[in-house]
């Protein structure tokens, strides 16, 4: 499934902070990885399943500076093994669509993409 | 001091001014009287605005060897304007930088007093209204505000430049009126904007105080359960987790003195003191007791009300441990971590100092913070229940909370004084003319029950602009949404039982606010109007049971950095 018909996808190994699954984890924040990014979305590899349609808060650490705080909606989520044969119980891939949320760093995200896109 | 609500005055103060400011006949005997045209020229040339208009005219005449004196009535008018400005600067002090800038309008006031009969009706002349409005907009300004105060300085600079460019007596009276009206409107807009921003601060702070109070009260009660004796770990986790969240919702919804809060505390007690009556116990007894306790707890588990799976999981674990405990099996117990909270957020004990009624929302204060700095602060919120004040600089900048006790100490030390505003220049004109009280029927109702005069409350409180059409409250369509940071938990009390939900996002384009559960699943979607209506109705509490997302991310990032990742 492609989130990104209008915008270029760029590979990215950024660290991404998301809210932990509070039922399983004492830490409020867990860390996962962005596989690729675009102006409208981000693809994550993470260790838990995200509910379809859920609103997720993300902190994307792009360049050692303060993470960009973003809001996204989960458009798809599937076990990693479906993609490349990994362990479905521990790794998942998720496609997230970014939202223009007040108080987020949505505009800074666009500024970041301006510097990255060819 | 005269109440702001009595302006504009319906009648002229000319007779009072002439009576008060006319020199005794003996002083003028034999003096030559200045021609009116000459007087106008002297007023037009008036540039040393530290002087009163009358002194300026007399000095200028003396400097050129002119032996004439202004006519009696004109002399009285100029004396009155000078006295009014002096009173205005003394009793309604702005930051000296702005007071100096506004003195530039003193010659215009003098010229208007000589040429326009409306000037003799305090509050009726457009220049009175402008100075009143500028004062209201500028009262909180001080240089330390930096960029956030720039709009006030710009407005005053531009207003003075516009009005003085055309000379004191503008050729086109209509044009002058339009200039004055436009500047007044700009000042009123600036003040309204500041009020809106303060309202936003008040909304957020009110919710924060209530949630802090609920958090502290809930934590205090639960900590008593946690600290009384060693408990099974699962009990501790439950009490610190969903039970704590639920306790805050109950407190926000019903308050601490309520039967509901008492029952909830009793339910927690039944959990931590669970044991069967002495003597032989059967498995059936244990099941019955464990089931009863589970039922008690479930009733108050409001924070998980939309998550039946989570309720089953939480209570299932508890019930299992209860069964083991009540069945006489060995269950590991340990001292439990307590919930951290700020005890100061709890209700202050009775007997703490009450504050004068004048320390109310919108009242400006001068607070001496050090030997060389005095802050101009506005009371944004007064919460008697929590005995807390929220003060902020102009336009809601740098808000801070202060307990009544601390504020009372500052009062006692003389470190706080009131700054008066509202029809300030009109009031100064009237007082200087000798008006001593509001005409019958014009005094605001609040005067009748005003507290006895003290150094702090000698002025009745009304702060409204004299123009009834002037905006005194933000129009709904321009109101900014009182939104907490992303990820903040809110309690909605328009639903029974209350709904606990997290702020997922505000979409400014679609004017929507979306709330979710802890997994991000949407629970509620409100348009801005609906959200504001709930806020206005006191039906939304901003809970801070968890920090906001940005702060949490920053903490996680620092933690990783400490571990070299």
Summarize the structure.
The complex is a heterodimer of chains A (118) and B (565). Chain A is mainly beta and 118 residues long. Helices cover 13% and strands 42% of the residues of chain A.
Structure, described:
- The complex is a heterodimer of chains A (118) and B (565).
- Chain A has a six-stranded antiparallel barrel.
- With 118 residues, chain A is mainly beta.
- Chain A has helices at 81-84, 106-116; strands at 10-11, 15-19, 29-37, 41-46, 55-61, 68-79, 92-99.
- The two termini of chain A are 24 Å apart.
- The longest helix of chain A has 11 residues, at 106-116.
- In chain A, strand 3 (29-37) and strand 4 form a beta hairpin.
- Chain A has two helices and seven strands.
- The model of chain A is unreliable at 1-5 (pLDDT under 50).
- Chain B has 565 residues and is an alpha+beta fold.
- Chain B has helices spanning 14-21, 25-28, 36-44, 53-63, 72-91, 96-102, 106-115, 126-138, 150-165, 173-228, 233-240, 242-254, 259-272, 283-299, 308-326, 404-412, 424-433, 528-536, 549-562; strands at 364-370, 373-383, 388-392, 400-403, 416-419, 489-492, 499-507, 512-516, 522-527, 540-543.
- In chain B, the strands form two sheets. Chain B has a five-stranded antiparallel β-sheet.
- In chain B, helix 12 packs antiparallel against helix 13 (259-272).
- The longest helix of chain B is centred in the middle third of the chain and has 56 residues, at 173-228.
- In chain B, 41% of the residues are buried.
- The A-B interface holds A 17, 19, 21-23, 27-29, 31, 50-51, 53-57, 59, 61, 66-67, 69, 71, 74, 99-104 and B 310, 313, 481, 483, 485-487, 504-509, 514, 516, 518-522, 546-547, 549-550, 552-557, 560.
């Amino acid at each position: 499934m492609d989130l990104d018909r209008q915008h270029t996808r760029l590979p990215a190994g950024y660290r991404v902070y998301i809210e932990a699954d509070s039922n399983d984890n004492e830490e409020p924040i867990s860390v996962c990885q962005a596989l690729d990014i675009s102006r409208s979305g981000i693809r994550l590899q993470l260790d838990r399943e995200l509910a379809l349609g859920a609103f997720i808060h993300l902190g994307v650490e792009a360049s050692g500076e303060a993470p960009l705080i973003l809001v996204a909606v989960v458009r798809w989520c599937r076990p990693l093994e479906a993609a490349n044969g990994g362990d479905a119980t521990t790794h998942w891939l998720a496609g997230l669509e970014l939202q223009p949320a007040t108080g987020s760093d949505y505009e800074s995200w666009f500024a970041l993409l301006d510097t990255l896109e060819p | 001091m005269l109440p702001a609500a009595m302006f504009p005055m319906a009648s002229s103060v000319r007779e009072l001014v002439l009576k008060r400011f006319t020199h005794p006949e003996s002083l003028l005997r034999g003096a030559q009287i200045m021609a009116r045209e000459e007087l106008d020229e002297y007023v037009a040339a008036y540039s040393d605005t530290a002087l009163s208009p009358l002194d300026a005219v007399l000095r200028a005449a003396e400097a050129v060897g002119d032996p004439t004196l202004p006519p009696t009535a004109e002399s009285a008018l100029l004396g009155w304007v000078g006295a009014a400005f002096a009173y205005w600067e003394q009793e309604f002090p702005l930051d000296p930088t702005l007071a100096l800038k506004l003195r530039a309008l003193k010659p215009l006031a003098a010229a208007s007093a000589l040429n326009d009969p409306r000037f003799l009706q305090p509050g009726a002349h457009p220049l009175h209204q402008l100075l009143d409005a500028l004062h209201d907009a500028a009262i909180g300004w001080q240089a330390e505000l930096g960029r956030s105060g720039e709009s006030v300085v710009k407005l005053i600079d531009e207003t003075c430049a516009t009005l003085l460019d055309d000379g004191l007596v503008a050729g086109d009276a209509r044009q002058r009126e339009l200039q004055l009206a436009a500047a007044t409107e700009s000042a009123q807009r600036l003040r309204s904007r500041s009020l809106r921003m303060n309202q936003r601060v008040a909304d957020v702070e009110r919710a924060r105080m209530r949630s802090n109070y609920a958090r502290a009260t809930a934590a205090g009660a639960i900590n008593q359960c946690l600290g009384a004796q060693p408990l099974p770990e699962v009990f501790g986790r439950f009490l610190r987790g969903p039970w704590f969240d639920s306790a805050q919702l109950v407190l926000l919804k019903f308050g601490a003195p309520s039967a509901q809060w008492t029952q909830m505390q009793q339910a927690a007690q039944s959990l931590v003191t669970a044991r069967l009556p002495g003597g032989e116990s059967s498995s059936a007894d244990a099941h019955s007791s464990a089931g009863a306790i589970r039922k008690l707890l479930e009733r108050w588990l409001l924070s998980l009300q939309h998550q039946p799976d989570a309720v089953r999981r939480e209570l299932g674990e508890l019930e299992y441990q209860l069964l083991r405990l009540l069945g006489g099996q060995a269950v590991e117990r340990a001292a439990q971590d307590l919930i951290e909270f700020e005890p100061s957020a709890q209700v202050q004990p009775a007997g703490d100092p009450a504050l004068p009624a004048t320390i109310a929302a919108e009242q400006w204060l001068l607070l001496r913070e050090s030997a060389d700095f005095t802050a101009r602060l506005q009371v944004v919120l007064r919460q008697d229940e929590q005995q807390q004040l929220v003060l902020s600089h102009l336009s809601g900048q740098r808000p801070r909370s202060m307990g009544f006790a601390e504020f009372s100490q500052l009062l006692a030390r003389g470190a706080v004084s009131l700054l008066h505003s509202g029809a300030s220049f009109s009031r100064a004109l009237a007082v200087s003319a000798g008006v001593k009280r509001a005409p019958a029927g014009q005094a605001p109702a609040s005067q009748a029950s005003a507290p006895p005069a003290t150094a702090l409350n000698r002025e009745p409180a009304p702060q409204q602009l004299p123009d009834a059409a002037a905006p005194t409250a933000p129009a709904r369509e321009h109101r900014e949404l009182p939104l907490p940071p992303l990820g903040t938990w809110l309690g909605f009390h328009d639903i029974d039982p209350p709904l606990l939900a997290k702020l997922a996002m505000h979409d400014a384009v679609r004017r929507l606010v979306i709330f979710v559960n802890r997994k991000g699943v949407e629970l509620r979607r409100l348009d801005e109007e609906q959200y504001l209506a709930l806020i206005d109705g006191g039906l939304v509490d901003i809970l801070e049971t968890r920090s906001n997302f940005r702060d949490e991310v920053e903490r996680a990032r620092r933690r990783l950095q400490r571990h070299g990742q």
